[in-house]
Design a protein that fits this description.
The chain is α+β, with helices and mostly antiparallel strands and about 325 residues long. The chain has 2 domains: about 260 residues, Beta Polymerase, domain 2; about 55 residues, Methane Monooxygenase Hydroxylase, Chain G, domain 1 (Up-down Bundle), CATH 1.20.58. The chain is built from 9 helices and 7 strands; from the N terminus they run ββαβααββββαααααα.
């Protein structure tokens, strides 16, 4: 699907604003001062490529857009500045996410957006771009679209903070294997998110340092918009890193508790073994079937040996108690 918004400014202030399809592109080309936003959603690759080439987009930029799982990036070309990032479709409380690649070509009087599925950010500004007078600033509009996506990420990450606090409390009160599995899964998902947010942070930092002159010359404060976007990306990356470290600390704490519990169990087993070693030795000695064993004929031999076993066991227990209670 290809849809377009066209703004034709007028000297008397009665600007003409139109919505339609590909037919508005020719009208935009014929109007020197007109602005257009072209949105391509779920277009076949060949048709998408031909259209972008016709709009003078660089072939390498189109290759990046259509490459599977291409990392987020920004690059300046002669006619357009490309912003390629991961838009969010679904973000669940357990950090499982559904993403898609969203490409924004910000050029002179033109913004082209390309995506495989419906985008909340695109749909939001598609209905508000006119009221916010954003069509006259393609670079600023592109920054606002990405800001909407990043804010959605940020809101979802802040919601995970309460879930992480609940996991931390549960781990301290009653640690178990189910909580351990949940923490490991969360840490794994946070690792993937860290990589994505790191890409986005570097993307905006690169664009801030290399803002093309055509974006600076257009109406709107693109520098402050990029600075705000960078701060949000930086905060998002920082939150994700902090949550990742907290999950790691909780996992290490659980492993330490498990190791301590295992050590106590081994200690108790060792003490029990030490208690029964002397009696076992005595039983082993007098259990041998030799004829020349004088003690076997003692009248009170059984009671003497049994008493010796009790005394040695008690002495071993007393020694172990003093040893471990220091």
């Amino acid at each position: 699907m290809i849809r377009t918004q066209l703004l034709i400014p007028a000297a008397d202030g009665n600007d003409q604003w139109l919505q339609g399809g590909v037919e508005l592109v020719q009208q935009w080309r014929q109007s020197a001062g007109a602005f257009i936003w072209i949105d391509l959603e779920a277009e076949p690759e060949e048709k998408e490529r031909n259209f972008l080439l016709d709009m003078d987009c660089h072939p390498l930029a189109i290759d990046d857009l259509q490459r599977f799982r291409h990392p987020p990036k920004t690059e300046n070309f002669a006619s357009y500045t490309l912003l390629l990032y991961r838009d969010i479709i679904a973000f669940n409380p357990d950090l499982t996410i559904t993403q898609m690649t969203l490409a924004l070509f910000a050029g002179d009087r033109c913004l082209i957006s390309c995506h495989e599925k419906a985008s909340q950010a695109i749909n939001h500004y598609w209905s508000s771009a006119r009221s916010e007078h954003l069509l006259i600033s393609p670079g600023l509009l592109a920054a606002r679209i990405m800001r909407f996506s990043v804010t959605h990420y940020l809101d979802a990450m802040l919601l995970f903070e309460s879930r992480l606090a609940d996991l931390e409390d549960a781990m301290q009160e009653s640690p178990n294997d189910a909580l351990m599995r949940d923490l490991i899964a969360s840490q794994s998902r946070l690792r993937k998110l860290k990589r994505i947010f790191s890409y986005h942070e570097r993307l905006i930092q690169t664009l801030r340092l290399e803002i093309p002159q055509r974006l600076i010359d257009e109406e709107g404060d693109i520098e402050h918009a990029l600075q705000d976007l960078y701060e949000r990306c930086e905060r998002l990356h920082g939150l994700c890193t902090m949550y990742y470290d907290i999950c790691g600390d909780l996992i290490n704490g659980y492993l330490s508790l498990t190791s301590h519990s295992l050590s106590n169990t081994i200690r108790d087993l060792t003490v029990l073994t030490a208690l029964f070693m002397p009696p076992t030795l005595i039983v082993g000695v007098y259990g041998m079937n030799f004829d020349n064993m004088p003690e076997l004929h003692w009248h009170y031999g059984y009671f003497i040996v049994l008493g010796a076993m009790l005394v040695l066991g008690g002495a071993s227990g007393l020694w172990a108690y003093r040893k471990w209670m220091r």
